[in-house]
Amino acid sequence: MSTAQKPPLELADRYIKKNYPKTTYNIVAESVDFGIDGIGFDDVFTELRMEGIKVAHQELETYFRSNNTTKFDPFKEYFESLQYDGKTD
Q1: What is the pTM of this model?
Q2: d(CA 33, CA 75)
């Protein structure tokens, strides 16, 4: 199947994984972090459209909430980072 025949979401997946390999989805804030300061969802959505990848906005949102994106839970990370010295306050 040539690139022109591939579904837009598959093309978007490849583009994001190539250009933004550190992408994570924050399950608490329900937002995407592309691993680059100043780059947000709308920036990447616009990039995709400018590259000719005609993925729908809602379809891209669903993609990020799916298992295709690494999930990040800031609460879990925080509590797992705490050190307990065996003493109480």
Answers
A1: 0.81
A2: 16
